Inverse folding.
C-alpha cells in the first residue's frame, strides 16, 4: 500500500481519538516500555482506519430530502364580510314656497257713454249771487259741453225745470248743432223779480223726442241762474257802466250781444 502523505497528524489525531485510554495506572519507572512502532506500521494503521470510515460512510443510504413545511406560515386571514355602509344623509330640499296665482281680475268693462249728458263749463254772464235791482232785465248765458254720444241738433231746446222762472220763456231752441265733445253757449232773457231777495231758476236741455237731461253722473241734475234782488236806495247813483252787461241791448235787427267784459 502506498503511504498517504500529509496525514500523519490526522492519523495521530484519529488514533488518539479512537484509542481507548488506559485505565491502568502508569507504570513505574522501573517498568520497561515497549519498543516504539515503526513509521510504516503507523502509516498502515492510519490508512486502514481512513479506508474503513470511508467505506462505512459510502455504505450508508443517501438521505432523502423531505421538505419541512415552513413553520412561519401565517394563517390565512378570512376577512369578515364587509358591512353595508350607512347611507350618506342627503338633505331633502325644502319645498318651494307656495305662491298663489294672481287672482284673475277681468278688464273693467267700458262704461257705455250715455247718449245725452251735459257738462257745465262756466257762467258766461250773471255769475251766482249777482246783485240786480227789482224788475231789471238781464240775459243769463251758460257755456255747456256735450259729453254724451248723441249730437244736439237745433231741434233740442233749453227748458225751464223749476224754481224761479223770472219771466223767461219755457223753452228756447238750441242755437246750433253740437256734436259730442263740442261746447255751446245757450242764453235766456230774464227779468229780476220786483221784491228784494235771492232767486234761483233751474234749467236743463230737452232732446227732439222730448227727453230732458242735464249735468251729473246720471245726467239728471239742473244747471241754474241765481241772483240777488237789491233793495232800491234812491239816494244811490246808478252806475250804467257796471250795469251794462246786465241790460238787454236791442236794435231793429234784434238783440245785440253788447257785453265786452262778459268773457
Amino acid at each position: 500500500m502506498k503511504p498517504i502523505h500529509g496525514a500523519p497528524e490526522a492519523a495521530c489525531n484519529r488514533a488518539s481519538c479512537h484509542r481507548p485510554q488506559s485505565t491502568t495506572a502508569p507504570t513505574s519507572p522501573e517498568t520497561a516500555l515497549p519498543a516504539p512502532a515503526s513509521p510504516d506500521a503507523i502509516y498502515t494503521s492510519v490508512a486502514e482506519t481512513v479506508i474503513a470510515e470511508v467505506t462505512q460512510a459510502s455504505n450508508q443510504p443517501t438521505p432523502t430530502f423531505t421538505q419541512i413545511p415552513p413553520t412561519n406560515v401565517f394563517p390565512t386571514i378570512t376577512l369578515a364580510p364587509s358591512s353595508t355602509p350607512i347611507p350618506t344623509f342627503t338633505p331633502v330640499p325644502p319645498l318651494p314656497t307656495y305662491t298663489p296665482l294672481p287672482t284673475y281680475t277681468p278688464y273693467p268693462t267700458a262704461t257705455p257713454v250715455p247718449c245725452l249728458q251735459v257738462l257745465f263749463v262756466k257762467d258766461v254772464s250773471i255769475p251766482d249771487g249777482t246783485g240786480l235791482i227789482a224788475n231789471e232785465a238781464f240775459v243769463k248765458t251758460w257755456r255747456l259741453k256735450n259729453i254724451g254720444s248723441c249730437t244736439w241738433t237745433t231741434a233740442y231746446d233749453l227748458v225751464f225745470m223749476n224754481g224761479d222762472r223770472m219771466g223767461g220763456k219755457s223753452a228756447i231752441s238750441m242755437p246750433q248743432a253740437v256734436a259730442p265733445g263740442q261746447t255751446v253757449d245757450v242764453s235766456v232773457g230774464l227779468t229780476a223779480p220786483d221784491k228784494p231777495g235771492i232767486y234761483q231758476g233751474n234749467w236743463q236741455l230737452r232732446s227732439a223726442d222730448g227727453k230732458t237731461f242735464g249735468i251729473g253722473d246720471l245726467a239728471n241734475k239742473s244747471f241754474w241762474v241765481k241772483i240777488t234782488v237789491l233793495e232800491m236806495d234812491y239816494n244811490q247813483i246808478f252806475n250804467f257802466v257796471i250795469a251794462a252787461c246786465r241790460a238787454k241791448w236791442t236794435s231793429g235787427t234784434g238783440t245785440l250781444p253788447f257785453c265786452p267784459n262778459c268773457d
Q: What stands out?
A: Residues 1-25, 27-31 have pLDDT under 50 and may be disordered.
